[in-house]
Structures are given as C-alpha cells and as structure tokens.
Amino acid sequence: MAADTHGRGPKRANGVREAEILHLLQHAGSALTPGDVTERLGNELTYSSVVTILTRMHTKGLLTRSARGRAYAYAPVTDDAGFAARRMRTVLEERPDREAVLARFADELSDTDADLLRQLLGAEPDTGR
Predict the structure, then answer these.
(1) Is 96 helix (H, G, I), strand (E, B) or coil?
(2) Residue 33 CB partners (closer than 8 Å, separation 6+)
(3) What's the confidence (pLDDT) of residue 94?
(4) Distance CA 1, CA 114 (A)
(5) Distances in Å between the alpha carbon of 19 and those of 52, 77, 100?
(6) Distance separating alpha carbons of residues 89 and 93, to the nearest angstrom
(7) pTM for the whole thing?
(8) How far is CA 122 from CA 87, 88, 104, 119, in A?
(9) CB of 68 within 8 A of CB of 55?
(10) Which UniProt keywords are given for this protein, alphabetically ordered (predicted)?
(11) How many Å apart are CA 121 and CA 117, to the nearest integer?
(12) Cβ within 8 Å of residue 98, ≥6 positions away
C-alpha cells in the first residue's frame, strides 16, 4: 500500500478506517475524544481526518457523543454483536418478502444454531434431527 499524501502511513478505505476506529472505541472502556483516537492509532491519521471519520460515524448512528471540554467524546451505541444484529435487521427490512428471507435463513442454519435460535425464541429444541 502506498503512503497517504500526509506521510502518515498506508492509505486505507474509509470503511476499513471506520471499522478500525469502531473496534478501538468498543475496547476503550470509556468515550474517547478525537485526540485520544488519534493518539491510540499511533498518529497514523491527522486530527482533522479523525474528526471527519468520527463525525461521519455519529451521523450514521454508530456512535454517541457528549461534550468534553472543547471537543466531543465518542462511544459506540452497541457492542459487536449488536452491530451484527443491526446489519441483519437492515437486510431483512430492505427485502419485500420477509417471510421468504427468514425461511431461507432458517433453512441454512446449522443444527446447533437452529437449536439456539429456538431456545432464544422460547421453543423446545428439535430432537428429530
């Protein structure tokens, strides 16, 4: 990978940077300011780039923010499993035939995952498999 124009390290796609920052925030233990994020990324990005990415992620509903001094401190709205569930729900909501999507999803589950889903839904595991 080529270095970016600011000499700060390899250029990465925005989605990759967002995922990297989201992972950092999920494991931080508390909300972080753009300066905190910049420092924890090893100064690979400029402060203004980090502000732009955090603002974009907040606009997408991935992060909450609260005032901390002259900056905002950012935290994820949920954990990794919560984000995966949100993606699954979004895909389901985008399809016109929810029943067909859910049926196909259920048909392709492993026996273990199907039993877990039944348990989560309050049904008894299928012992006939």
Answers:
(1) coil
(2) 68, 69, 71, 72, 73, 74
(3) 93
(4) 42
(5) 14, 14, 31
(6) 6
(7) 0.68
(8) 23, 20, 21, 5
(9) no
(10) DNA-binding, Transcription, Transcription regulation
(11) 6
(12) 92
